[in-house]
Write a structure and sequence with these properties.
Elements: E1 3-5, E2 12-14, H1 63-115
Antiparallel strand pairs: 1-2
């Protein structure tokens, strides 16, 4: 829930990497429609300048968090896959059941027509 994927099958990224000024998606989609203006460029001698953190690579002190968000994303992808398989199975089962019902009524109608010609419904 607190992660996003650029496209299905891509790696998951933490939500705070969205609109962070660094494109993580191949097409830069995570930086679109952020609603904030780009910050002014600081001068190189400015003491407030700090090294930028790349959102493409998790910080070294968060190795455990990195594996957590990867496994959380993988788990949510697995759950989605299971839901899709179950929904597809139910749809196929319903269609086959409807077809069997249709085949049975057609057989019944054909039998009636042969046994009682002219009195079919």
């Amino acid at each position: 829930p607190d992660h996003f994927q650029c496209t299905p099958g891509d790696p998951c990224f933490p939500l705070d990497w969205r609109c962070d000024g660094h494109p993580d998606c191949d097409d830069g989609e995570d930086e679109w429609s952020c609603g904030t203006a780009t910050a002014a460029e600081p001068s190189p001698g400015d003491p407030a300048v700090i090294a930028p953190r790349s959102s493409a690579v998790p910080p070294t002190d968060s190795a455990d968090q990195s594996s957590e968000w990867v496994s959380a994303c993988a788990l949510s992808s697995l759950v989605l896959l299971v839901i899709l398989v179950v929904a597809s199975s139910v749809a196929v089962w319903s269609l086959s059941k409807a077809k069997r019902r249709s085949d049975t009524s057609s057989l019944e109608k054909a039998s009636r027509e042969q046994l009682m010609p002219g009195k079919s419904q």
